Amino acid sequence: MALRDRSKPPTPPTHPPSIEVMVVDDSAVIRQRLKSIIESDPRFRVSLAADPYEAVAMLSKSVPGVIVLDVEMPRMDGLTFLRKLMRQHPMPVVLCTSVADRAVTALEMGAIEVIAKPNWLDAARLSEWSESFLESIRNAARAGRLPFREDRGPSGADPRYTADVILPPTPYSPRGGSTTEPLVVVGVSTGGVQAIQQLLAGFPLTVPGIVIVQHMPADFTGAFADRLDKDSRIKIGVSEARHHDPVRPGHALIIPGGTHGLVKRTGSGYRVELQEGPPVCLHRPSVEVLFRSAAQAAGPLAAGVIMTGMGDDGAGGLLEMREAGSLTIAQNEASCVVFGMPREAIRRGAAKYVVPLDSIANTIMAWVVNPEAGTWH
Hints:
- This protein folds into 2 domains: 125 residues, Rossmann fold; 206 residues, Rossmann fold (3-Layer(aba) Sandwich), CATH 3.40.50.
- Helix content is 32%, strand content 19%.
- α3 links the parallel β3 and β4.
- α6 crosses α11.
- The longest helix is centred in the middle third of the chain and has 21 residues.
């Protein structure tokens, strides 16, 4: 029998590094509630600041991995603090607010995620909100290139729905419609506000109709679409999609948060259908659902673009598009805020082209002129 060497202490078990999350909110009750939710994930520890001035004093001593920021606060509002923070010490920020226009402004300034404040009295929905909030914190930690280990739950499983719950898998068939119109579908998540602005600014009025899924809470996508539509750099029109809206050349439709968006063939073109249902790939709207619908409705007449974002939403759908003969594009790593979604699409062989953000619009317009450029090989 081997004797244990007692001259050396036993090796302690290893644990993932603890990541500090600073919560900045003027309500002591809200600070404590958010702290409890965040620390339910043992990878996080929480520090608390009552306002931006207290946060600045704490930042001089310790730099957190993620900041959770309120908007309405005394002495200095959250957006002013965010602007100063991004100039002097950029870091991942999750904004908690229910004001849609401020949410879009925060994303433009560089906030990683925006989540709407919950109704704390609605116990039935609070559990779902808490998990969504925790996922935002995890996304921010990943975006900050922090040491963050992926977990799929206690059993190692990935308990989530696929696109099958919204749209069964069906191969593309040209029958059932006579359309010859091209179509562009785009999926984007973390870092997407600036990316979508730059992408749309690169399109001429002759661009085919565009449908976009941007992971964003339900109350914020309308304000985001309005902001894009008023952006002088963007020549095409932009609006939040409504049920049965036609997909028109020279116009982009943003799928509303909180509902799934599909494209359906109709006559000589396409229309958007909005459907209720559970989150797919942890998201609603889901890029996976949009891409699958485009593969089925348009096949070789569609172009799919997967851009900056965490996770794998859309990777399987983009592969279905490529197999249906669509042009498929992934944003390259150097131009992504978070390379997760494009990386997974590339890993699965879904992307025919991997290009920087500033080349995506030109790649699509070259395909419009020469559709053979997007065929499956």
